[in-house]
Amino acid sequence: MSALRPLDKLPGLNTATILLVGTEDALLQQLADSMLKADCTSELKVHLARSLPLPCSVNRPRIDLIVFVVNLHSKLSLQSVEESLCHLDAAFFLGKVAFLATGAGRDSHCSIHRNTVVKLAHTYRSPLLFCDLEIEDFRAAMAQRLVRLLQICAGHVPGVSALNLLSLMRGSENPSLEDL
Amino acid sequence: MDETLAEFFRRTILKIPMTEMMTILKTWNFLSENQLQTVNFRQRKESIVQDLVLLCEENRASLNDAAHLDIICDDIDLFDMEQFKSSFKKILQRALKNVTVSFRDAEENSVWIRIAWGTQYKKPNQYKPAYVVYYSQTPYAFTSSSRLKSNLPLLGQALTVASKHHQIVKMDLRSRYLDSLKAIVFKQYNQSFETHNCTTSLQEGSLGLNINMDSRIIHENKVEKERVQRVTQEIFGDYPQPRLEFAQYKLETKFKSDLNGGILAEREEPLRCLVKFSSPHLLEALKSLAPAGIADAPLSPLLTCIPNKGKNYFKIRDK
């Protein structure tokens, strides 16, 4: 099993690769389809994985952004993400990791409290996004957003880096360190 | 004709009920019209049989002819539907004065029975009847849930006696779909109804997703996905699952916990707990759990044994 490192491979020409990690394959697949339909000047590649570590592969391109998808309806999905986080190189957490929580809209089905994922994202100093992936319009909007994030993390947007992005996003959505 | 063959003829013909006798003898077509006319069919059955065996001897019947007759007897439905209906109705009416019983013959040798129950003092309630479907070629009957549970033993008794069985057992299998119950009980669910292209790749076979996979999407855990698909297919098969709405597990087991200590862990008596799964189509939902990533494959045998065991209500105790 190889550990994923953010900068151990050369980037492909105009290529941006995102890795979606989550237990529910159907959701990841739908999100991937939506992302590929979004407007994008770069060439996109989407990798889907159930958990980390990934199986060994020489042909894998450099991963620019990792999004961990947690379904608030399923304790198993949170547990799997928590276990996967241990297998990630620390350098990724400098703006190349994001958390996505789905299922918040159906409160009666939620078995994970919102604060749990908020704390998780805070622990790993990464942005947290909420989106009900089952609803097509929300998913399309989130897909567009992720594509923009991905382009920045891949360095395709001049003047903005992944690290810049981190501090920008923290201000608007996530509470600062003092608040929690 | 030798002794054993004559005896075989005697016993085979004796088994035929008088109502079917002429039909079977004519289908067998071994004894001619003239010969049959010489037999007096009004005497006692033993005498009729004796006369018929003598005729067989005259015609030098062989073992083949005897076997042929035996096959015909098995083939023709020897179940007397009219007798069943009248016996069933009599039993209910003798026990309960106020009851309405009606019948309708249906396909596959089945009879639909409608029963409106009353009590000793009240007339039958025609608005809340119970329905029973009995398949005469099988030892199975299906009933709709009757609001008057107290009449179930009587119904069971009537079915048992009228169908000439010794006892009736209530199965722990319930569903709103008669066809699905039939499929499970007659073990007909594991036949594919559509032609299936066996060379379809595993990916296309899953849940309707991935039909035209974009080459820009790469599954990192392809090997695991294929394993899950394979295991699911081995357990559930390719065919559509019979339709059930519930699976209920009544647990009477000792509480087990990972945490050391805790109040419940120290209890000696079993903890009573009811777990109920409900779905518009339970078995299809269970089938899709592992491929969707919600559960690990293979699933617990408690869930996968439902069609095999013909049960969806379970009681589980510690061994």
UniProtKB/TrEMBL annotation, chain B:
One of its GO terms (cellular component) is chromosome, centromeric region. InterPro entries: CENP-NAC/CAD_complex (IPR052011), Chl4/mis15/CENP-N (IPR007902). Its main location: nucleus. It is found in: Chromosome, Centromere; Nucleus. It holds the Pfam family CENP-N. GO terms for biological process: CENP-A containing chromatin assembly; chromosome segregation. Keywords: Centromere, Chromosome, Nucleus. Belongs to the CENP-N/CHL4 family. This is Centromere protein N.
